Request: fold
Amino acid sequence: MLNYTIHPLADVQTDQIGEGTSIWQFSVVLKRAQIGANCNINALTLIENDVIIGDNVTVKSGVQIWDGLRIENNVFIGPNVSFTNDFTPRSKQRPAEFLKTTLKHHASIGANATIIGGITIGEYALIGAGSVVTKDIAPYALVYGNPAKQHGWVCECGTKLENLICPACQTQYQIKDNTLNRTEQNRTEQNRTEQNRTEQNRTEQNRTEQNRTAVNDDWFHANTLRGAA
Ligand SMILES: [Zn+2]
Reply:
């Protein structure tokens, strides 16, 4: 049996829930919703049927996730964020299909923001509290206001970049074809660090094995002597 937690005061009708996920009080999750592993679905949320949520997603209280929403891994949705899925809502009149909205991995949405349906919010983008987002948002973009506009870029750690460098973690970025990326230098350094780490591990492993052999030799020696005595 999968290991997830549903509070007894929640009404959860789907069983497509990943390991380690928690769903808290007074939440309602409809039958065909899919929720990944290690998610935290806070109290007082509503999740409809045509919804796919990835792993490590946080949904704070007071959020309704309507049909048509796709939420990738590591997304953060702040309290009382509003989504919409219909440009021409009328009572008792259902559209043939609801608008599709995608939140790419690691995107974060501040409290009380409104996300108009049919758009994509790029990976690592940060949406300020109270924003009204009406258009696609580029990866790593920092946007806020009504209508929301871009006011710079954010690092993967969440800090606003200054001259394409993160003042908090020093990661460097570049803009190519209007898209922000981490620089090659970063990548090379990361690879070098990983290589070093692997070599270090190997050396340490060898040392540990040597020690182990030495200890075994000692033990063998001591026991042989004891046996001989
Ligand atoms: Zn950073």
User: Anything to note?
Assistant: Residues 184-228 form the longest helix (45 residues). Helices lie at 184-228. Residues 155, 157, 159, 166, 168-169, 171 surround zinc ion (CB under 6 Å).
